[in-house]
Amino acid sequence: METRSVDVVVIGAGQAGLSAGYHLRRAGFAPGAGFVILDADDGPGGAWRHRWPTLTVERVHGFHDLPAMPFPAAAPDQQAAQVVSDYFEAYEREFGLPVRRPVRVQVVHPQPDGRLDLHTDRGRWSARALINATGTWSRPFWPHYPGRSSFRGRQLHTADYRGPAEFAGRRVVVVGAGTSAVQLLGEVSAVAAGTTWVTRRPPDFREIEFTPEHGRAAVALVDARVRTGRPPTSVVGVTGLPVTPEVRRLREQGVLTRLPMFDRITPDGVAWADGRFVAADVILWCTGFRAALDHLAPLKLRAPGGGITMDGTRVVADDRIHLIGYGPSASTIGANRAGRAAVREIRALLTPATALD
Predict the structure, then answer these.
(1) Cα separation, 278 vs 264, whole angstroms
(2) Dihedral sign, CA of 132, 138, 143, 146?
(3) pLDDT higher than threshold 70 for residue 356
(4) What pLDDT score does 211 carry?
(5) Alpha-carbon distance 167 to 189, whole Å?
(6) Rounded to whole angstroms, how far apart are CA atoms 270 and 87?
(7) Cα distance between residue 34 and residue 7, in whole Å
(8) What are the backbone angles phi and psi of residue 247, rounded to the nearest 5°?
């Protein structure tokens, strides 16, 4: 199959990828010939298109506009997945972004001529620079605990959750101390026969107003990690959990009574070393995600610390590669800023020879 050549390939058409596409156009890269966006999904929306139906607009902790196009007004009870997918679709159309889908990038290889060779399930692409915006949703993290394979009930991850109805009358163990764990625990507890909440560390609830200053401080902490080659923590993990009216309600109902992490899983539930046992029909793992970067392995970007050493969006080990939606830019507002910064550096790298070789 013929290899198609462009200056820049963007992998992923979520918030970060669309922001990069917008700034590439503004910087003079022609859609199709100058850059292309490869997206593995069947339609617009990025990770948002996979969010559970009961996640409504009013329950989203904020969404930042894409560049030059305000996020539309939406009814509080509308599904966030649908609203955001519609917004992304309109954005792609408004700015003529060259999104190719579904195209799954399988692996990226360096070439002797300085270009990057991308193998996909729809052919090959050759690029002079790469903006990776694959996020984390496609790589859910499942921690290992002894006995997990022996459990006779059902185990699922946040990524598999589609609403509380299927848990009616079931005994459910919810694992995790993040925002998703609290939201899903609240939904499931309304229909389940019983819920048990377990976390590795005490949940970090904060009775403070999250100001832009708090957000910038959190981003700075994550940025400091990736600049030294350590794996990023999530921005939410740094900011803690806001005490919302929903959290207060769940506290009053006794739903947010937390137990420390169990030591092992049995065929019928979970057990602790001190002899405590909780019977369960379902274990719901709200244990987060990891950056989806396996396709970049041949580029050997990993640092000894286990992460990728970054300078802003640029990979220190290879200045052709920019990661957005990674580390400090793993938020909607951070992704926008990262898209602009990545394009500015790529334009400087490729100038004056921005035309195809």
Answers:
(1) 11
(2) negative
(3) no
(4) 61
(5) 9
(6) 42
(7) 5
(8) -65, -40
Question: Amino acid identity, residue 133?
Answer: A
Q: Which two tokens stand for residue 99?
A: 């999104």
Structure tokens at 238: 């740094």
Q: What is the pLDDT of residues 273-322, one digit of tens each?
A: 999 999 999 999 999 999 999 999 999 999 888 889 999 999 999 999 99
CA distance 328 to 323: 10
Half-sphere exposure of 111 (CA within 13 A, CB side): 14
Of residues 21, 37, 15, the one with CA closest to residue 343: 21
Six-digit token string for 283: 């274990």
pTM check: above 0.70: yes
State which amino acid sits at residue 247.
Answer: V
Structure tokens of 334? 């951070």
Q: What percent of the chain has pLDDT over 90?
A: 75
Q: Which pair of structure tokens corresponds to residue 206? A: 């904060």
Query: Quick one: how far is CA 323 from the chain centroid?
Result: 13
Q: How confident is the model at residue 209 (pLDDT cuts 50, 70, 90)?
A: low
* Distance (Å, whole) CA 328 – CA 313: 9
Residue 78 is which amino acid? Q
Residues 6+ apart with CB under 8 A from 200: 177, 260, 261
